[in-house]
Specification:
Layout (H helix, E strand, L loop, with lengths): L14 H10 L6 H11 L4 E4 L6 H11 L10 E4 L3 H14 L8 E4 L5 H10 L3 E4 L1 H9 L10 E4 L2 H6 L3 H9 L6 E6 L4 H10 L4 E4 L11 E6 L5 H11 L5 E5 L3 H13 L4 E4 L5 H13 L4 E4 L1 H4 L7 E6 L6 H8 L10 E6 L4 H11 L4 E2 L5 H20 L5 H14 L3 H12 L48 E2 L39 E6 L9 H12 L9 E3 L4 E6 L4 H8 L2 E2 L2 E2 L3 E2 L8 H4 L6 H5 L2 H5 L6
Parallel strand pairs: 1-6, 1-7, 2-4, 2-5, 3-4, 5-6, 8-13, 8-14, 9-11, 9-12, 10-11, 12-13
Antiparallel strand pairs: 15-17, 16-18, 16-21, 17-18, 19-20
Helix pairs in contact: 2-3, 3-4, 6-8, 17-18
The chain binds adenosine-5'-diphosphate and magnesium ion (MG).
Length: 629
């Protein structure tokens, strides 16, 4: 790792937080944490540039928690995030860091959630607010959120907020916060507009940039699996089972806790596995490595620090169960395989939001990492049957079969069945401990509406795809993006490849679009070109506020004063309600069903080509109450 700091204790954090970090299993600070924490503890403003998965949350959360006065039940820190999923996730992280801080209160506030609940929660008093820009702005406007006691303001994923069209809201918020506070801005990239915001609102910020160092790696087969449709553990066991030259593996995870948990789970599934982490003393560590060498263990689950320098030639596989913080760590990790001239395999698990890190690793190592197709149930069965046949063949060559052949004949005679049937019964018995056919399903295709579960710990980030309009945003006639039968975003940057569901199959295997034109309902909204709105703003707001995956959003017609958007029929009331309250570029969108033309009649739409005037003639439609389906 690029980090030269090996311990959180060197960063100036309090004993209580250090205890918490050890309890939740953080062993060493990630590079961005090692650099940012001292700066923020010193009270400086700062800009942090590092991509997803580098540990930015703790980088800003730990210092800001040190500054919270628990006795003051007022917001002392505000964290702005681009999506509600992130708001929830960041709030959860803070809650976990507050394990030894009784009375600490963090409150996520985001669009789509009932105001009544939020108002109650706000009134109860929270020390930290984590929110999406639109909703935070709303509460500031309504004076239901008071920032007089604000000490720290964090803009998390600033470039993403820009991409989603929230930058005006963010600036508005920055203008409406008291002057005396620390500001930290985190972003994976630094587009001009973000740089401008930083210049305007940050005071002599320190700048931290985590660069990806280039490195060469040995000739190791490198593959990745995009986490989708299945738990990592199930995927891991499926993969290990069909890997041809499997001998032994080192599996890398992020926390000490995870090493132990995963070792337990793998043991329960019949693998000879053990954890290797910084809690083990030198003697215990050496013992684990000896066991791996001798074959008493086949799998070691390790943290980066604990696995440094391991040299066990029989390690045929390295699995990056949790993606590393940086390319250097990746190179160290995969260097544990392919040793002593043997073949090595490196498997990387990549969550949708981590695709960027995957690309960075590829660039830094100057080697492509190819996608791995997860073995299907049938693949596993075939492999197990083949192994079984091999074992039977071995036994057929063994001595002393006569005694057993005699028993088989007796059974066949007594039961009046063929020897084949007896063999089938014996085969069935033989596989009882490890059935030839595995239970469970192969990953299913995603559904158009996200389950509205706030307790869902799996982040769903698909709504954070960049929304690049395919046409110029000009011209008299309304523009339609025909999104009926092909993926919406042709020009997908790395960041864009994050599907909404973790369980969505990778792009190459994407099922055909499930929503034919007939199942779409067209809505009208009160924002248009005149308000500076672009197609991506509409997609962003709808995806984010109503939890509708962007690829299920149909054609969008952009007019001067209003726009139309097609959404799948059967929208849940919760999503519909969320949309009724949604704002785009600060304007209430007033979404309601548009009855001007049936959805899908492209030609009819052009009638509105003259702009908003012809539509005005149909005002009556505007008055129609929104149908909640
Ligand atoms: P980012 O905001 O940069 O995308 P996160 O803050 O969400 O990254 O962190 C990614 C994951 O890494 C989280 O699961 C977090 O708990 C874990 N993590 C962060 N810092 C550490 C650390 N020092 N040790 C172990 N795990 C960590
Ligand atoms: Mg983050």
């Amino acid at each position: 790792m690029t980090s030269t700091v090996d311990s959180f204790a060197d960063l100036g954090l309090s004993e209580s937080l250090l205890k918490t970090l050890s309890e939740i299993g953080y062993e060493t600070p990630s590079p961005i944490q090692a650099q940012c924490i001292p700066i923020l503890l010193d009270g400086h403003d700062m800009i942090g540039m590092a991509q997803t998965g580098t540990g930015k949350t703790a980088a800003f959360a730990l210092p800001l928690m040190e500054s919270i006065d628990i006795k003051v039940a007022k917001p002392q820190a505000l964290i702005l995030t681009p999506t509600r999923e992130l708001a929830i996730q960041v709030a959860e992280a803070l809650q976990s860091y507050a394990k030894n801080l009784p009375g600490f209160h963090v409150l996520p506030i985001y669009g789509g959630q009932s105001y009544t609940i939020q108002l109650k929660q706000l009134a109860r008093g929270a020390h930290v607010i984590v929110g999406t820009p639109g909703r935070v702005m709303d509460h500031l406007e309504r004076k239901t959120l008071n920032l007089d006691n604000l000490k720290t303001l964090v803009l998390d994923e600033a470039d993403e907020m820009l991409r989603m069209g929230f930058i005006d809201d963010v600036e508005w918020i920055l203008e409406h916060t008291p002057e005396q506070h620390q500001t930290a801005l985190f972003s994976a990239t630094m587009p001009e507009q973000i740089r401008r915001v930083a210049q305007k609102y940050l005071v002599e910020p320190k700048e931290i940039k985590i660069k990806a160092a280039t490195a060469t790696v040995a000739a190791i087969r490198q593959v990745y699996w995009q986490v989708s449709g299945m738990h990592k553990l199930d995927a891991l066991t499926r993969i290990l089972e069909v890997e041809d030259d499997f001998d032994a593996a080192i599996i890398f995870v992020r926390t000490k806790t995870a090493t132990v948990e995963l070792a337990d789970k793998l043991n329960a599934r019949g693998y000879a596995a053990a954890a290797l982490n910084g809690d083990l003393n030198q003697q215990m560590r050496e013992r684990v490595i000896e066991q791996l060498k001798s074959g008493a263990l086949d799998i070691v689950i390790a943290t980066d620090v604990a696995a440094r320098g391991i040299d066990v030639p029989r390690v045929s596989h390295v699995v990056n169960y949790d993606i590393p913080y940086d390319t250097e760590a990746y190179v160290h990790r995969i260097g544990r395989t392919g040793r002593a001239g043997r073949n090595g395999n490196a498997i990387l698990f990549v969550a949708p939001r981590e695709i960027r890190m995957l690309r960075t690793i590829e660039r830094a190592t100057r080697q492509p990492i190819s996608p791995l197709t997860l073995p299907s149930r049938a693949d596993i069965t075939n492999k197990r049957v083949a192994d079984f046949k091999g074992k039977v063949a071995e036994v057929l060559n063994a001595e002393g079969l006569d005694f057993f052949a005699n028993i088989v004949s007796q059974i066949a005679e007594e039961q009046n069945v063929s020897a084949e049937e007896v063999a089938a019964a014996l085969a069935m018995m033989a596989q009882e401990a490890k059935p030839l056919q595995i239970a469970g399903e192969d990953p299913a295709p995603p559904r158009p509406f996200r389950e509205q579960r706030n307790d869902d710990r799996r982040p769903a980030f698909g709504d954070r795809e960049p929304r690049k309009p395919r046409f110029e945003d000009r011209g008299e006639r309304p523009r339609f993006e025909d999104r009926g039968d092909r993926p919406r975003f042709e020009d997908r940057g790395e960041r864009s490849e994050r599907p909404r569901f973790e369980d969505r199959p990778p792009r190459t295997e994407r099922p055909p679009r499930p929503a034919p034109a007939g199942d779409m309902v067209r809505y009208r909204i009160d924002v248009g070109r005149e308000h500076g709105v672009e197609v991506r703003d509409i997609v962003g707001a709808i995806a984010n506020e109503a939890g509708i995956e962007s690829r299920f959003i149909g054609r969008i017609g952009l007019y001067e004063e209003s726009s139309t958007v097609e959404l799948p029929a059967g929208m849940p009331a919760e999503a519909a309600n969320a949309l009724k309250r949604t704002r785009i570029r600060g304007m209430p969108i007033n979404l309601r069903q548009d009855e001007g033309r049936p959805a899908g009649s492209f030609g009819g739409e052009r009638k509105f080509g003259g702009g908003e005037r012809s539509f005005d003639g149909e005002r009556k439609f505007k008055k129609k109450p929104f149908n909640e389906c």
